[in-house]
Structure formats: structure tokens, C-alpha cells
UniProtKB/TrEMBL annotation:
Annotated protein name in UniProt: SDR family oxidoreductase
Keyword Transcription set for record: no
Organism: Paracoccus yeei
Keyword Glycosyltransferase: no
Gene3D superfamilies named in the record: NAD(P)-binding Rossmann-like Domain
Similarity field: Belongs to the short-chain dehydrogenases/reductases (SDR) family.
């Protein structure tokens, strides 16, 4: 038996990176997975790879009408929703003084408004059953980094949103938790990881490596499953020790 047998799960930003690994793992654990993204070709290819357990839906998480359309499909096809993973995010590292309104607002709309819209859209299909919402925050929602004002601001906000939603939705049987990745090798942060300073930080992590998308997917599977039935409002950190501190650089 799989950890997610019989569950219907919707994952945003699922065409690649962490979201794609979450979709693969969820399907392997017995869930029906709705793969949502604006990247249609890769999203549909992922569903072809996974097979009948996956369904692609184009979704711009920053648009309420997009959420409404997708939830109608979920309702018509499955009649219920057990798991929502708000994974979609963008990161535009820029010095504070040069970021500009457009870049800051773009990150706000995807990273912060998107999860809020997703929660609002999912609740009607989750009420009266054991529902689980997982918001993908970030270590940047605890520790600040130079040039990440928009990204860090939204990820701090996602943690706050998670805790308030956990309180408000508890009477409806819905749990809400956050997962906080550190440096993870995904297309979104490939440019960041290519910078020398980031490579130096990774070399001094206790884990001595960047995370893999499957590392995050493995953790996300826990709050999605019934094994976490007593967990809500929590921050689950998966960062290779980033927030704990740095170790001495290796010599030679």
C-alpha cells in the first residue's frame, strides 16, 4: 500500500523541478495527481511519463479565474480534493535599490498571492474530510539574503499565511503546513547556484551538497499523508543544515 492511496492531490508549479518530483512520488504512493503549471509542454510530458494517475491543467496561480476553472475540473473528475501543494514560485535576485515595482510585484503575485488563492479555492472541496495543504516556503523565509527582498518578503509571508490558515481551517478538518527548502538544484535557482558565493556556501553546509528535488518531495509526502495527522501550522525544514550554521571549509 502507498502512503497516499485513494487521495487526490493538486500540485502547482509541477512541470519541472521540485513540483515534478512531488508529482512522480505522489503518483507512486497511490495518489491521483493534478499537475498544474503555465509550462504546458513539460507539464503534459510529465503526465505522459507518469501515466493514468496524472492529469495536466494549465494554471497561472496568480489569477483567481484560473483557480476556479481548475477546481471545477477537479470537482467534475474526482468530486473531492485531499491534498494541495502550493509549490509554484519565482525568484528574481536583484539589489534592493534596483529591484523595481514590476519585479517585486511579480514575485508577490506568484509566491504569496498564489498560495492564498489556492487555499481559498481548495477549501470547498476539502471540507468535511481529512484535507492537507502544504505551502512551499523557503529557508529565505527565516534567513535573509542580499538581493532577495521580493523573494524573502513573500516567503516570510507564506509562513505567516500557513499558520493563520492552520488556525482558521482546523474546524473544517484541514491541516496546513509549510516546507522550507534550502539550496535545491532546480531550474529556478540554477542561476543563483552558479554564482561563486553560493557555491562557497554550499561547500560549507553540514550536508556538503545542494539538495535534490527528490529530497524535498520525500518531505512533502509526509504532511500530505495521514502519518502527519497531528501536525498543523508547522515549518518542516529541509536545507542540509543551512539554517543551523556553517562548518569549516575543506582544505585542499
Amino acid at each position: 500500500m502507498g502512503l497516499l492511496d485513494g487521495k487526490v492531490a493538486l500540485i502547482t508549479g509541477a512541470a519541472r523541478g521540485q513540483g515534478a518530483e512531488e508529482a512522480r512520488l505522489f503518483a507512486a504512493e497511490g495518489a491521483q495527481v493534478i499537475v498544474c503549471d503555465i509550462i504546458e509542454d513539460e507539464g503534459r510530458a510529465l503526465c505522459d511519463e507518469i501515466g493514468p494517475a496524472a492529469l495536466f491543467q494549465r494554471l497561472d496561480v496568480s489569477r483567481p479565474e484560473g483557480w476556479q476553472k481548475v477546481m471545477r475540473v477537479v470537482s467534475d473528475r474526482f468530486g473531492r480534493l485531499h491534498v494541495l501543494v502550493n509549490n509554484a514560485a519565482i525568484c528574481k535576485p536583484t539589489p534592493f535599490s534596483a529591484e523595481g515595482l514590476d519585479a517585486f510585484e511579480a514575485q508577490y503575485r506568484v509566491n504569496q498571492l498564489g498560495p492564498w488563492l489556492g487555499i481559498c479555492a481548495a477549501v470547498p472541496l476539502m471540507q468535511g474530510q481529512s484535507g492537507s495543504i502544504i505551502n512551499i516556503a523557503s529557508a529565505s523565509g527565516i534567513k535573509a539574503y542580499i538581493g532577495h527582498s521580493g523573494y524573502s518578503a513573500t516567503k516570510y509571508a507564506v509562513r505567516g499565511l500557513t499558520k493563520v490558515a492552520a488556525l482558521d481551517l482546523a474546524p473544517h478538518g484541514i491541516r496546513v503546513n509549510a516546507v522550507l527548502p534550502g539550496f535545491v538544484e532546480t531550474p529556478m535557482i540554477a542561476e543563483i547556484l552558479s554564482r561563486n558565493s553560493a557555491q562557497q556556501q554550499i561547500a560549507r553546509l553540514p550536508a556538503r551538497r545542494a539538495g535534490a528535488p527528490r529530497d524535498i518531495a520525500n518531505l512533502v509526502c509526509f504532511p500530505a499523508s495521514d502519518l502527519s495527522s497531528y501536525c498543523t501550522g508547522a515549518d518542516f525544514v529541509c536545507d542540509g543544515g543551512l539554517l543551523t550554521g556553517q562548518i569549516a571549509a575543506q582544505e585542499g
